[in-house]
């Protein structure tokens, strides 16, 4: 893929605000042919689509679709509408995600939180990708799939057990998909897995960045992910200490890692004051 998104057709889940909106703004700024936004917040989605459309000055077609990706049946219906209205995307950014946190696993209210978290964070990216991947493979044109996971998926963390599980599932699937495409000779479709630590978007308001892993600025993350997507890089770990902790987790005995890294660097205490968006 070229060094910009000019002329590309891009679909972003969770596109009404936060990081999703910022990815869309980057796409419009680079002259994407179309930007398709999916989100369940109809009001925010309409405002974002209107503002992006005005900013593009007609150069980028901006379309929005109200869809709750936790309703897996709605994904196929909405994908059909996208294919009818715009066509299949060249770039898919699986950005939508939720967190229900600051409780120990046994303190969660019911299975509803567990089910919703796994559906949005783990199952929805698979369902959305399955809708559009066959056309990406068949086209022979450069295509990109970006899966926004989390450093939590690489390292267990108290008070976010289900979220960590959902992101671990996403990482395993995303990397397997990358290898499958390479093995099958579909090198024109590249998969990028992203595992950031906490980002200052409000989603993790109150969470404390551990030692060596400060809370990240959204603009910094967007730029790193966007460049990696265009280059077709397999993995984006932000900050670099995420990779270090992953390496140490594989080298050190479990209890030693818990004591020196988990407790010593404050990782296991990072969610104690989490409030989220409220």
TrEMBL record:
It comes from the Bacteria. Belongs to the short-chain dehydrogenases/reductases (SDR) family. It comes from Agromyces tardus. Keywords: Oxidoreductase. InterPro entries: NAD(P)-bd_dom_sf, Sc_DH/Rdtase_CS, SDR_fam. PANTHER family: PKSB, RETINOL DEHYDROGENASE 10. Transmembrane segments: none annotated. Pfam families: adh_short. CDD domains: 17beta-HSDXI-like_SDR_c. This is SDR family NAD(P)-dependent oxidoreductase. GO terms for molecular function: oxidoreductase activity, acting on the CH-OH group of donors, NAD or NADP as acceptor.
């Amino acid at each position: 893929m070229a060094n910009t998104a000019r002329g590309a057709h891009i679909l972003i889940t969770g596109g009404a605000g936060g990081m999703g909106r910022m990815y869309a703004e980057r796409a419009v700024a680079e002259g994407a042919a179309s930007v398709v936004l999916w989100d369940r917040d109809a009001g925010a989605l309409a405002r974002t689509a209107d503002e992006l459309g005005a900013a593009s000055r007609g150069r980028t077609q901006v379309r929005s679709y109200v869809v709750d990706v936790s309703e897996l049946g709605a994904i196929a219906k909405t994908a059909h509408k996208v294919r009818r209205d715009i066509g299949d995307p060249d770039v898919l950014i699986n950005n939508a995600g939720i967190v229900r946190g600051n409780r120990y696993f046994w303190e969660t209210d019911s299975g509803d939180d567990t089910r919703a978290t796994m559906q949005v964070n783990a199952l929805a990216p698979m369902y959305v990708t399955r809708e559009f991947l066959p056309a990406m493979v068949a086209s022979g044109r450069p295509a990109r799939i970006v899966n926004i996971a989390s450093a939590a998926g690489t390292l267990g963390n108290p008070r976010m057990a289900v979220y960590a599980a959902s992101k671990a599932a996403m990482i395993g699937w995303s990397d397997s998909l990358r290898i499958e495409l390479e093995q099958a000779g579909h090198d024109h479709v590249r998969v990028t897995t992203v595992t950031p630590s906490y980002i200052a978007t409000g989603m993790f308001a109150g969470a404390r960045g551990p030692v060596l892993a400060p809370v990240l600025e959204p603009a910094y993350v967007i730029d790193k992910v966007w460049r990696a997507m265009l280059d077709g890089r397999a993995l984006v770990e932000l900050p670099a200490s995420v990779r270090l902790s992953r390496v140490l987790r594989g080298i050190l005995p479990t209890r030693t890692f818990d004591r020196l890294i988990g407790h010593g660097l404050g990782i296991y205490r990072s969610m104690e004051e989490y409030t989220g968006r409220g």
